[in-house]
Amino acid sequence: MIRILLFFMIGLLTFSGAEEKPNLLFIFLDDFGWKDTSYMGSDFYETPNLDQLAKEGMIFTNAYSAAANCAPARACLLSGQYTPRHQIFNVGISPRGKATHRRLEHIPGVSTLDLEISTWAECIQGEGYKTATMGKWHLSDDPIPYGFDVNIAGTHSGSPPRGYYPPHPKVPNLVEVKDDEYLTNTIIGHADSFLRGNESNPWMLYLTLFAVHTPLNANREFIEKYEAKESGELHDHVAMATMIETVDRGVGRLMRTLEETGAMENTIIVFFSDNGGYGPATDMAPLKGYKGTYYEGGIRVPMFVRWPDVVKGGQSNDTPVSGVDVFPTFCEMLGVDLPEGQPLDGVSLVPLLRGESHDLAERALFWHFPAYLQSYGPSTSDEQRDPLFRSRPCSIIRKGKWKLHEYFEKGEFELYNLEDDIGETQNLAEKESDVLSELQADLVSWRKSIQAPVPAKANPEFDEQSEAKAIQAILRKRKNK
Length: 481
What we know:
Blueprint (H helix, E strand, L loop, with lengths): L1 H18 L3 E7 L18 H8 L2 E7 L5 H10 L3 H4 L33 H6 L4 E6 L14 E3 L30 H14 L6 E6 L14 H5 L10 H23 L6 E7 L22 H4 E7 L8 E3 L3 E2 L3 H8 L16 H4 L10 E6 L3 E2 L14 E3 L2 E6 L2 E6 L4 E6 L15 H18 L13 H17 L1
Parallel strand pairs: 1-5, 1-6, 2-8, 2-9, 3-4, 3-5
Antiparallel strand pairs: 2-7, 6-7, 10-13, 11-12, 13-14, 14-15
Helix pairs in contact: 6-8
């Protein structure tokens, strides 16, 4: 009898261990630039908690968002699909910039993620996980139907409700907040409660903070500190620094909670950003560009994965990876089946994380933006193709060391060797005609396979003289500064 009971107990313990599922904490920041953490090279912002987590995992130096601004990047992330499949091309569907400066009729697309498209949250929720989204959603009025049990602050809005200090009217679970509580801290508080309330079951938290999206409301707690701090050569924006420190301290609080609840070593932590940093406030140098541009500074983002007992700490990986890879990666991490019949454009990064052989280095990554995104203004126009738009209608491909931009208005191409020219300063389109031809053929083939709409209809309101005068006026103003 004792022997039978012993075998039963051993079997029960083995079964429980086999059935223990890892938790997933996905920290997804807004407009957080490639160099906005200390571990990536900031000389002014302070991120000791993020730095420590990165040190304990694998850092990706060639991680890309699948779009250069918020809504399409998030749609790609949640769906695992490039923009032509879900048709969210921009923030909103209205034309951006002055009509007299747009040569083509833009492709409006849609502003809401189709509920027929499965998200990784739905797949994870279907396997018994408690799922939550906390912070910015931006893809519909309500994230709950997309695979979440809990929603804190998620609406169709892309910006913080009336800034980072209360009141936050008509925002889910943020109506009653202390008068002086900073928004990032409010959301972190909800996240802390979620972790403590789900100790007995597996959970997935999509911590999609509004920070550091505009408005750049400084956290008053840290203003004096950064006003007194010596400026760095790369960064010196006080409000941005306070916002970033608030995020980092919030992450530190959640790490302490995971330690206290015993969940730290059973929790996968992934860190990512939706696009490049906000041009007027931060800098991605040596990368060219910023949020809204399809140069590296607009789409290359910080990323790390901390996965206890799987990913050895202290690693840096330069394999190009994309936001569309998140879907299959999360599903494989958690042992969740992919949705049947839904095309996914990404691949699982689990073999790469495990240190197994892979063939992703020469894989082609794609971007498609058949719309317009107006400039921030003259003060930052020097890094753009022109002073009027951060981006005009285009498609982009990166394959190995090569990156090709195709702009539809005039049939222009820009070709860069990122291995030698990470700042995209030398356009090799004429010099490397064979490479250009190969990559253009790949782009055309990809657009055809994915049915990507390409704007071709002339905009009747376009005025070449008006465009030229506007550009000249901005250039004169910049020269006189």
